[in-house]
Amino acid sequence: MKSQFLTIALGAAAAALGVGLGALVTFGVSAAPFAWVPNEKSGTMSIIDVATDTVVGEAAVGKRPRGTAASTDGKTLYVSDQPANAVQVVDVAARKVTDTIVLGESPEGVYRSPDGRWVTVAVEEDNSVHFISTATGKREFQVKTQGTNPEHAVFSPDSKWVYVSAEEAEDVDIIDVAARKQVAAVKVGKRPRGIGFTPDGKLAYVACELANQVHVIDTAARKVVAVIPAGVRSNGVAVHPAGKLVFITNGADGSVSVIDVASQKISKTIAVGQRPWNMAISPDGKKLYVANGRSNSVSVIDTEKLEKITDIKVGDTPWGVFIP
């Protein structure tokens, strides 16, 4: 009898949320996390169950969702919405927007500090990085950057520094979070985009799109210590949690390059969809999810075998993948 009542209750809740009973059960029972995929032209976020690699739901989030970050408890998402010049605050359980934080024109990359205190938003048209306090839900300050048209503003693992890439630049700008100002810039290749740190924070990998290279920065010395040839229009960066592999998307090649950290060389290249962009790795490190902007899909890669497992259809023009 209890199971019957549970089924009825779940069915009613699923109907209220506009999803199937199976999807609701998956949300409530599965221990696996979910991957959120912002679809720029659809104005939606596709929700993928990483246990089954299937889309189990969709949420309407602004008009052009792009960068995404989450609170430390995973209950809240912060999603940049380019036409609104704002970040949309999303309740994960309800899958709906609960607040809007207005910023400057054309916000893009969104990142949360590892200590959970801050969310950064790279705002392209005012050449600055905005800092949102997760405690107050308000923008607390912004830092002007040397580079023009900033896209990503990524925290170091110790939360002390933010590395900023700008599309119209050949440098990575470094912000001192405590001082609330830019304190350095490191020369890299033309049009730096994705940035990823090794878990120990000693190295930062920067994909330079127009140079077709990855520049490796020694964070203590603040200088480039390796330049790795990549595919055509290298842009996205994802570092494996074990710190031994770095993944780079090559937008024009439709591929992902795998960098071996020990040798600082590409060990393998894996074909994915058209115009691969930003990525995310599952918390257990076993799968890499790659957004393919022109294929309207997400490719899933086995990070141990270094082989593509499947492609998942999502919305129109996925910008990236985020796993809270």
Description:
The protein is mostly beta strands and 324 residues long. 8% of the residues lie in helices and 53% in strands. Strands 4-5-6-7 form a 4-stranded antiparallel β-sheet, with no helix packed on it. A hairpin with a 5-residue loop joins strand 4 and strand 5. Helix 1 crosses helix 2. The longest helix is centred in the N-terminal third of the chain and has 16 residues. The chain starts with a helix and ends in an 11-residue tail after the last strand. The N terminus is likely disordered.
Mean residue pLDDT: 91
Spatial extent as radius of gyration: 19 Å
Q: By helix and strand content, what is the structural category?
A: mainly beta
- Widest sheet: strand ordering: 4-5-6-7
N/C terminus separation: 36 Å
Biggest pleated-sheet summary: 4 strands, antiparallel
* Helical content band: under 10%
Oligomer classification: single chain
User: Which runs of at least 5 residues are low in confidence (pLDDT < 50)?
Assistant: 1-31
Strand content: over 45%
**N-to-C series of helices and strands:** HHEEEEEEEEEEEEEEEEEEEEEEEEEEE
